Every structure is written in structure tokens, then in C-alpha cells.
Amino acid sequence: MTLTPPGRSPKTDQVKCKDCPLRRNDAFRKFTDKELEFVQSFKSGELVADAGTTIFLEGNNSAHLYTVLSGWVFRYKLLHDGRRQILNFGLPGDFFGLQTSIFGEMDHSVEALTDVVLCVFPREKVWQLYKNYPELGFDLTWLAAREQYILDENLLSVGRRTALERVASVVLHVFLRLDQLGMARGRIIDVPFTQQQLADALGLSHVHTNKTIKKLTSRTLIEWNPPKLKIKDLEGLAQAAKDELPELPLRPFI
Amino acid sequence: MTLTPPGRSPKTDQVKCKDCPLRRNDAFRKFTDKELEFVQSFKSGELVADAGTTIFLEGNNSAHLYTVLSGWVFRYKLLHDGRRQILNFGLPGDFFGLQTSIFGEMDHSVEALTDVVLCVFPREKVWQLYKNYPELGFDLTWLAAREQYILDENLLSVGRRTALERVASVVLHVFLRLDQLGMARGRIIDVPFTQQQLADALGLSHVHTNKTIKKLTSRTLIEWNPPKLKIKDLEGLAQAAKDELPELPLRPFI
DNA sequence: CGCAGTTTTGAGACTGATCAATGCCTGTGG
DNA sequence: CCACAGGCATTGATCAGTCTCAAAACTGCG
User: Fold this and answer.
1) What is the mean pLDDT of each run of 10 residues along chain B (254 residues)?
2) pTM beyond 0.85
3) Exposure winner among A127, A154, B40, B220, fewest CB in 10 A?
4) How is chain B split into domains, by residue range?
5) What homologous superfamily is domain A17-148 in, according to CATH?
6) CB of B196 nearer than 7 A to strand C
7) Which CATH architecture has domain B159-240?
8) Is the CB of residue A247 less than 8 Å away from at least one CB of chain B?
């Protein structure tokens, strides 16, 4: 984990919020200049981390909040004997780390799934945000509600869907999220996770996950040649997932 | 579902926020008079509902936010063929309905588990709350983060715990939440849900849930004579759940 | 007393887990 | 340029936890 990787001088190379490439994405709501200025002052730096790096661990009290600028992270929880449940994946524009600033201690861990760049916000300033920029405070709640929506969906999957439905469901949702970010090339996306990691997100064993992927492939719903994943039949996939195609709303990001 | 049940005149009998019995509970943070005054003006009324009543349904846009004053509710999602996953239980002081005010449409349903009284807040006023009472805006985010914490825990259970661990885990957490509210009499609590409902929260069949409860009973960890549940060995229960006994933090409520 | 909704029990079926190999790809060093 | 190591993916065989089906026993209530 390095703050300034070789070939990247500290500070100078950091993305200015007003120039943030994510802002250009239609998926995000437009900010006023004043808001942008504040977010810029809120941002204390960037964290550049290699794939596999632990961003923070359950039980620790990370003093920061993070927005994913590029790359993927994932949130997870462990049982003492090593069983792992991946709670959600974090993509560009996603926000995490709220619980520390609220409970003083993390109740889950976060790891970089790919090489990532994260915007870092110090938690001491969160209060200023609420006080001086109620719109942004509202956005924070918005993001928390969105995370809740995703967790609700995951809980439904893991609790009540069969293996086939589950795999179809995540693949579908991951595709839709990437598509909204403009990170899909037509029906093709890059999925950086291993089957083991997918299994941990689904509450399945990696062996059975593999066999289930094969089944989806043989039904010509998807084609998966790591890391490329092609959706061959979006509607069929949704049906296999026992899911509808949801509308993704315009969202804020900090 | 009635707004004013027989024997209770409209308005006059409603609980004044400053006299709210929940406020007396040490589990909640103290509010200033000004905050109390705002919350009072925010509150548009009370909803009294019988057990089994649907408070709102997925897909609808309920225009309101709710705080549970007394009784239990539960949030759930359905698959088209009727499979149901209960996402969380709502106890006195718990808050729900945020997603509508944020996404304009509910992505889950809520039902009264027991007879309940709910405080109703109109969503048009949420913005005022953020603008004029940033502390309360922060509290709203706090509550969202707390819900997320519970969902994370549930997802870990449903995804990675065995049936025995799962049952032990919810029983434990429900006990702790009730205890914090002062609703436990020593190690005895009233649990209003049926085994079917518990099963739907755990992602298990009701038959297997029943057999698992028996197993916990035979290990003298609990004693369950609906609706009374006695925790006979709190530490042993936590061990069976592969869980630690968490500290529940002081919390706000709206 | 009888009904309706729960809880409880038993038996058999099946989904998904575990165990164990084998194959495959990529990067590394000789 | 080839050999090898370390991750991953893949496959087959067996096992076990949980589900489904079905029926009986309870409980609270009208």
C-alpha cells in the first residue's frame, strides 16, 4: 500500500474534484461549484493500493471515509474459523467507511479487489459537511440507503434463491452497475473476481459455483472467459435469476 | 389499520415527543429542547395497526417515514413464487421508510408483527430536517448505518453459518436488542414471531428451524415456550453462534 | 367443543458441500 | 526458450445438511 507510487509525485498528480473523471458520467448528479469546492477541501488525499491490499480490518478504527475513484474493492466479514462472507463490491463512485465515523469501530473489513485509487476524507470533517452543506449530508444518507438496497437484495438471494438463481442474479446486477458507469462494452464486461470470491459473495462453495456457472453457460445465457464475461441473453438471465430488470436511479457521489 | 382506534380520540391521545416514553430509555441519546420541538413539528401523526397489517408494499411509494413507538414490525422481500426473506425486525425506536424518500419507491415491504403504534413523518419535510437541524440529519445517517450493520450481520449468518449457528445468532441478537430497550425481564423475553417467520428471517425451512430450536433446547442454551423465551446460557449461546457479545452503542432516534 | 393456525415428528429426496485429482495459464529464473 | 511453481479453474465421487412431504399433536379462541 503506497500513498505515492513510483512515477507519481505526491499531491501534484492527484485528481482535482472539479476535474474528476467520474463527474463526467451521467450516472451521477451534477454538483454546484460551491459543493465541488467543499468536497475538494474535504478530501485529504488519495490512497493507491495494489490488488489484495487490506484497506481496513474489522475491529480497527480507521479514521477515514473513502470513495472509489478507480478499481474495485469488496467489503466482507469473517467467522473465527475463516469462513468468509463478501457483503458487497465497491465500484468507482461507491462510498464506504461510514460506520467508523458513526460507531468508532469498523464491523467489517475492506480489501482491494483490483489495483485501486481511493479518495480519502478525514472523519473529523464529516460534521462540517452536515452543518454547512445539508445537500451533501442528504447525499450521504442517500448513499447509505443505496447500500442498504443492495444488501437487501443480496440477503434475499443468499437466503432464498437457489444456486443457479443466485449466480444469475449477481452476474446480472454486476453487469447493470458496470453498464451504468459506462464500464461495459456492449454486453461484455471485465469481472476481476475469482470464482472463489464470487462464491464467498454468494454463500456457496467455489466448486458448486463453478458448476453453476457452467450450467448458465450451457444454457447460453452467459459466456465467461476470465476475466471477460459476456451476457448473451439479458432477459433470460433475469428470468433465471427470478428477478426483474431494475431501473438504476441517478445518484450523488462524494 | 386505523388512524384512531376506538377509545382513543384523534390527536388528543397522541404521544407528545417531549413526553415520549422511549426518550426515558438510557439507550437513546438526549435531545435538546429545540430538537424535540422540531421532531414534534415533523411528526404528522400516529399509525395504529393490528398484527398482520401491511404497512407498505414493495413497488408502492409510501409518502412517509416511520418510527416504531411500540410493538414489532418486520421488513421483507418476496420472490414471485412466494419465497419470502425477512430482512430485519423493527423494534421500538427503530426507524424505517427512508428509501422511498430517496428513491421514490419502496424496494421492500413492511408488515406489523404485533399490534403496533408508529410515529409518522411526512417525507416532504425531510429536507427541512437536513437544512435546519444538521444534528438530526446526522442521526438519520447514523440510523441508516446501524441498519446496515444489522444487515451485514444477517448476511454473514445466512451466507456462512450453519442452521444451529444461525438460530443461536438471531436469538442472541434479538435478546440483546430487547435487553437494551429494557424489554427483557432478566434472561426472559417475549418473542412474538412464529417459527415460520423466524425461518424466513434465517433462510431456513420452518421444519428445520423447529428441529434446530430443539437442539439448542436440549443443550440447555435456551428454553422456548412461545411466546416466552429464556436464555439459559448467554455465553454458551454466543459460542454456539460463533459470535462475540457486541457492545451496543448509545443511539439517536427520531 | 371444534376449528385454524402452529408446532412437532418421521421418512425420504436432493441440493450443495467436501475431498481429491487433474489440467491450465502466467510469470519467473535458468 | 524451456522448465517449473503457484494460482485458478475444472471434474468426478461421495457425503451430509437441509428441504419437502405428510401427518399428528397442540394451543388459543370463538
Assistant:
1) 41 81 92 95 95 93 91 97 97 92 84 97 93 94 94 98 98 96 95 97 98 97 93 96 82 86
2) yes
3) B220
4) 17-127, 159-240
5) Jelly Rolls (2.60.120.10)
6) yes
7) Orthogonal Bundle (1.10)
8) no
